């Protein structure tokens, strides 16, 4: 099979396409013939030097394709099943930038009939991160239609992949969604994803604009840049609201005024999938799949998530596009549908 690998960390030029034996699944594992793979910031960050311990790494956490081998003791999967996969390279050297991937059956999810491989490959890290952020608030541990009814969610960076997933999932669960964006173009994408209103945080008074849209404060903030936005988040979140933080864009540290924060019973939830635990990962996968079955999650310009396609041999360029801030979702076209 063809696979992309790197043997040392560094810039995207360390990536190369090689031929490798098709791996065999062991007990509890499933092999998937990949059709599409998603590219996430995690992929280039690991490649650039945040991960070590393997002689050779194939990057890629997310993908979608067809089961073509099932290991012993696996129940619920058979050859030719259409699936999406997540965290494929977490804790192991070989991810989804390859024609085949082997991973535990717990990280393989059936792809509903009619849902494209493009959508399946765009789920994984963004959608599960968004799910965890959205279930960090008061009394909400699973997403279903109506689970967030009557609540207002503020999504910071509504044109990003996680932001897009958070908007679509929150809207499906019944929330009113406000998204912050940095341009009119990104605002149009957030509206296409399902946001009711957008606020351009680069002009005017974003706190006043958000407060006008949510006079009592927002119930939940899905935050990508806490070092930059924490003052705004506190100012617009209601008493007993939640600020869910899933990234460190714009800085690694921020301070919290203790009395002001605890007097309003604010809750901070930090979100990282790698330590989330199998139970929460599976709950997220089940809820995301339920949203897919309801037609509540899509990709492409009309869904606020433009697609950028690269061949497997162009994986280095795909990494560069993500690192450079490509707006939308970067996918690798790997195999035939």
UniProtKB/TrEMBL annotation:
Keyword Ion transport: no
Keywords of the record: NADP
Domain Enoyl reductase (ER): 10-332
Coiled-coil region list: none
Record-linked Pfam families: ADH_N (PF08240), ADH_zinc_N (PF00107)
Protein name: NADPH:quinone reductase
Natural source organism: Nocardioides abyssi
